[in-house]
Every structure is written in structure tokens, then in C-alpha cells.
Amino acid sequence: MVAVEALVKRGRLFGLSLRAEGGVVGLLGPNGAGKSTLLAVLAGRLKPDGGRASLLGHDPRDPKALALRAYLPQAPRLFPHLKALEVLKGAQEVKGLTREALDEAVFRMGIEALLPRRVGELSGGQAKRLAIAASLMGNPTVWLLDEPTAALDPRGRERFWNWVRDKGEGVVLLALHDLEEAALAQRLVLLKGGRLLEEGPPEEVLGPRGERLPWLMEVVYGEDAA
């Protein structure tokens, strides 16, 4: 069984309890809801102040857990002086992967033409494609992604979601900012003020035809949908 668990208190999280045993789980909520904090705790980047987090039965900071997950923060750090291919080769070496895994990641995100270019020369969307390719290379069991499609053009989003659909067994836990993309997840988790507000399949959270979007905008995001 593939399981990601969190019963933690940290910063903006207040005793949040979450368990994901597979599939694509989308985190929704306004800025400051705790989405990024939760992902960072599960990635082993932050230590919870209370409670515990578990990644496939391991503490997220355990090397065994680190080897099984991909983590993409909201603003991934890429060294501007490196060429795109050097970034990917660095990820390949750190993960102990084959050249075939690198080539698949390049194909998945459609970045063949970017390989000889330096990171500092790339647009925001191109750099994001590169960061996704480096992070997801090798298809680790758990993906922890903080707004992965931000800055991507429609084709980049399509490539990313195709990769998600083809992932196979494992857990994809991602913070989302687009309610249309939220419908592509298998389960949605609503966070507000560091607490879990609601969770369930998209058709329940959003409504079969999006009927609950006005409620989401008003209650979760504090905005008038009109």
C-alpha cells in the first residue's frame, strides 16, 4: 500500500490530519492556507512542531523516504549559469538514474530545444518545464508538487497532466490554483487557515456541474463569485 500521512502542527497548520493512499490529490485554498507548508513537511524540508508525518511508512527526512519522492516547490531554484542539459544531468546523477530516464523526462515536457540553452536565458514557462522534468525524472512513487502548472502555457499544462495520467501506481499530491484543473484530480482537499475544511471527489467538492463554485469562492477564498 502506498500511503502519505500527516497529523501535524507547523506554522500555519493547526493539527491538520490527512491520509492519501494513491491517486491524484489536489490541495485547494487561499494564500496562507497551509498548502505549501504541508508539502514542505511531507518532503522533509520542514519539521512539524507537533504530531507526525509519514511517507510510505518512513519519516519524511529519512533517506529512504527522500529516495521515493519528488518535491517541486512553488519557486524552484535553478542556477542561471547552467545549461538545461546540465541541470537534468545533475538530477540524473543525484537520483542514480539511466540516460533513458533523462530522455523520457525531456520528451514528456517537450524541452528538447532547450537543452543547449542556459537557464538564465529561459522564459518563466520554459524554466518551469525544465524544473518539472528534473523533479519527476525516474517517476518516483510520491510526487509533492506546489502549483506545478503556474507559469506554464496551455501546451505545457497538457504535457504535465498527460504525465500525471500516465504515472501509474503512487501518490500525486499537488497544490492547485486553477479550479478547472482541480476537476482533473481524483480527490480534493480544501484548506483554510491551516485547517482541513472539506475533502472528497471533485464532483462532490465542486458539484457535478460546478454548482458549488460560488460557495468555494465565498467561503474558501473570501470572494464574491459574481
CATH architecture heading of the largest domain:
3-Layer(aba) Sandwich
Strand order across the largest sheet: 5-6-7-3-8-9
CATH superfamily caption of the largest domain? P-loop containing nucleotide triphosphate hydrolases
- Series of secondary-structure elements, N-terminal to C-terminal: EEEHEHEHHHEHEHEEHH
Q: Report the radius of gyration as a whole number of Å.
A: 17 Å
Biggest β-sheet strands, sense, barrel? 6 strands, mixed
> How many distinct domains?
2
| CATH class bucket of the largest domain | Alpha Beta
* Low confidence ranges: none
The rounded distance between the terminal residues' Cα atoms is 44 Å
Query: How much strand?
Result: 15-25%
Q: What percent of the residues sit in helical stretches (DSSP H or I)?
A: 25-40%
Structure explained in plain terms:
- The longest helix has 13 residues.
- The chain has a six-stranded mixed sheet with strand order 5-6-7-3-8-9, sandwiched between helices.
- It has 226 residues and is of the alpha/beta class.
- The protein has two domains: 154 residues, Rossmann fold (3-Layer(aba) Sandwich), CATH 3.40.50; 64 residues, no CATH class.
